[in-house]
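Title: Prediction job returns without error message
Component: structure pipeline
Severity: low
Priority: P3
Assignee: unassigned

Description:
Job completed but the reporter wants confirmation the result is attached to the right record. Sequence as submitted:
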Amino acid sequence: MTGPRYTRLVQGLPAAVPFVGPETQERERGAAFRARLGANESVFGPSPHAIEAMAEAAREAWKYGDAQSHDLRAALAAIEARIGKALFRRGFNWHLSHWQSPLEQVLPVAPVAAIDSVKLVSRAGVETLLDPAGYSLRVDAHRPAIVAVTSLPNPSTGGSIEIELSAGYGLDWHRIPADLRQAVLLQAAEYYDAQGTGEAGMACGVAVLIEPYRSVRMRGLG
């Protein structure tokens, strides 16, 4: 079998035809088309609902944008709190009194890009930097952890542990997963629409978008 058989007309068609806009064709023929129907055009024009929505949005177009992006920042914080993840990559400083275990310490935020330093701090404030060769980062989407090569040293009595780390999906907006970006924009719109009412909640559709990123918490029954 050599392939499908085409008519001479089909066989004579070029592989590609340059697009010529309808306005160009109207100018060349000296007359307007009575009807137009392209790949992205409708003979019925825009829906009355779309026209109503555009007119409603136009009433707010005169306002300057918020220089502090308050609603967007609030939406970013809300999504991060719901999923326990950092969206934009940045530094975190975490203090704890003791290790979860001598072998590992689960970190409170994800995704972690790097452990910048681990210090033991005495009651008097004297810092002792731990050798990075003595521990490693276990990369995990939900529960990243510091893992000891042998054992994590405890601080002296009254002392603490200080961990500096970098966490987040990326340094710019497009490094954040698309569904989380969509969730942030939906939530920001919810806050914007509720300005002055105090009635803003979780926007419709956000829960579904962020669900894959939420940590599953298991509790025993006793």
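Comment from assignee: result matches the submitted record. The beta strands are 90-96, 104-106, 112-121, 127-129, 135-138, 145-148, 160-167.
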